[in-house]
UniProtKB/TrEMBL annotation:
Organism name: Paenibacillus xylanivorans
UniProt record similarity statement: Belongs to the ABC transporter superfamily.
SUPFAM superfamilies associated with the record: P-loop containing nucleoside triphosphate hydrolases
ABC transporter domain boundaries: 8-232
Pfam assignment, any one: ABC_tran
Molecular functions per Gene Ontology: ATP binding; ATP hydrolysis activity
PANTHER family: ABC TRANSPORTER, ATP-BINDING PROTEIN
Keyword Nucleotide-binding applies: yes
Sorted UniProt keywords: ATP-binding, Nucleotide-binding, Transport
Protein name, per record: ABC transporter
Amino acid sequence: MVNKEKKILISKLYKKHGEKQILNNVSFEAKEGRITAFLGPNGAGKSSTLRILLGLDNSTGSATFGGQKYAAYDTPLKIVGAAFDGVGGALSRKVSTHLKIIAQSNNISINRIPEVLDIVGLSDKCKAKLGTLSLGEGQRLGLAAALLGDPQYLVLDEPTNGLDPTGIRWFRKFIRQQSDMGKTVLLSSHILSEVEAVADDVVIINHGKIITTGEIKDVMKDLESLEDVFFSLTEGGA
Ligand SMILES: Nc1ncnc2c1ncn2[C@@H]1O[C@H](COP(=O)(O)OP(=O)(O)OP(=O)(O)O)[C@@H](O)[C@H]1O
């Protein structure tokens, strides 16, 4: 039975690599029309959680989009758009060809390609080779690929990596537009100031354990900045 609520629900994930427990009862949700930031220091377990959510790794527990696992959707790119580090195509391939391959393998019309390039401000790079893109352009192309299927859910791993201040400002506006359209946005970051400026809700993870979740304004209510919250929770003992 498909859950009508358009939320990402992560419940009781446990994961070990060898003897090391890298996820320990990880549970949280990301809600429709809101931007949820998944925050934590290097090695905290963010990418591991997102990989499980996207069916790239296994674990105990469950991780669903609208009540269904990623792999249970016939054409997942029409439901979930994901962007991880790197573009992931042959460097000699053109931007348009890269997006065409992704679109065609997911039954998405190629008419969508100019639209997504326009949304991310890469229309002039349509014929450029992947190997010639800057880091920031590569990030934008990753977002374009994520948007191809006009998905309800966006899962973005460190989306501001490599963006300059103009790019960061562009990203904030872009992601707010997406959530205002009713999308469910989950993004990971270790850049606290970025998250503070853009997120509605925050989930903080450290050493594989969720240490706080809530609306950003509530999590921050007794502290000056998210930076203070983060350090009080991750270094102060929790
Ligand atoms: N395949 C693997 N084998 C062994 N250990 C792993 C593997 N993948 C991840 N880990 C370990 O799991 C822990 C969590 O890693 P993960 O990449 O999820 O962290 P992260 O929060 O995304 O960090 P970062 O911000 O640096 O990307 C780390 O200690 C990492 O070394």
